[in-house]
Amino acid sequence: DAGVTQSPTHLIKTRGQQVTLRCSPKSGHDTVSWYQQALGQGPQFIFQYYEEEERQRGNFPDRFSGHQFPNYSSELNVNALLLGDSALYLCASSTGDHWGYTFGSGTRLTVV
Amino acid sequence: GEDVEQSLFLSVREGDSSVINCTYTDSSSTYLYWYKQEPGAGLQLLTYIFSNMDMKQDQRLTVLLNKKDKHLSLRIADTQTGDSAIYFCAVIPPNRSNDYKLSFGAGTTVTVRA
């Protein structure tokens, strides 16, 4: 049974560009959350998608947007990339309640 | 929002016990987790405890929760070199709230020396 799958694993982008990260949740999970982990810090909540809607959003600018598809997979889009957006982006899936989060291995984004 | 604090570093000799501590601010937090992160990897759920419990043991891992002091600890018995990693404490609000986000500490880097 596959866990949470994220793609790509690594990405290098230039300032000002746009990026799309993808996440496939664990089988049986219908909720996807995205977290940003800067170097040396704990993960910070970006937003959560449930039933194809953004259910909750953290303290991130509108440059960060997302989408959830009918098969529960999700995308994270970041526009107008800044150097400070360089981080590990983690996707977590769950069954919609407050417990049982499974994390993927992350996408390492480097903005140059 | 929830604040979660951890000590940043812990060095332990192989075979000894490790104790990692965490404090949090929201007394209504109902689910408390310990995650492990190895270099270049994602987060692996190690164990969890519900707020109506004081202790949970799972093989080499023991979680202690002091709700009064809002203090959570993780004890790893017989620490091995494979336990070298960053350990994150994370908490989440109760089900009745509309807050679904995990709040993480900054992580404790555990180094196991021979």
The total count of strands of chain A amounts to 11
Biggest chain contact = A-B, 27 and 28 residues
* Uncertain stretches of chain B: none
| Gross geometry of chain B | globular
Structural summary, described in words:
The complex is a heterodimer of chains A (112) and B (114). With 112 residues, chain A is mostly beta strands. Chain A contains no helices and 11 strands. In chain A, strands 2, 4, 5, 6, 9, 10 and 11 form a 7-stranded mixed β-sheet that branches. In chain A, strand 9 (87-94) and strand 10 (102-103) form a beta hairpin. Chain A is globular and about 40 Å long. Chain A starts with a strand and ends with a strand. The model of chain A has no long low-confidence stretch (mean pLDDT 94). With 114 residues, chain B is mostly beta strands. Helices cover 0% and strands 54% of the residues of chain B. Chain B contains no helices and 11 strands. Chain B has strands spanning 4-6, 9-13, 18-24, 31-37, 44-50, 55-58, 61-66, 71-76, 85-92, 103-104, 108-113. In chain B, strands 2, 4, 5, 9, 10 and 11 form a 6-stranded mixed β-sheet that branches. In chain B, a hairpin with a 2-residue loop joins strand 6 (55-58) and strand 7 (61-66). Chain B is globular. The termini of chain B are far apart. The mean pLDDT of chain B is 92. Classes of the chains: A mainly beta (112), B mainly beta (114). Chain A binds chain B through residues 4, 6, 31, 33, 35, 40-45, 48, 55-56, 58, 90, 92, 97-99, 101-106, 108, and chain B through 4, 30-31, 33, 35, 40-45, 48, 88, 90, 92-95, 98-107.
Distinctive features:
heterodimer, A: 112 residues, mainly beta, 4-stranded antiparallel β-sheet, 11 strands, 51% strand, B: mainly beta, 5-stranded antiparallel β-sheet, 54% strand, globular
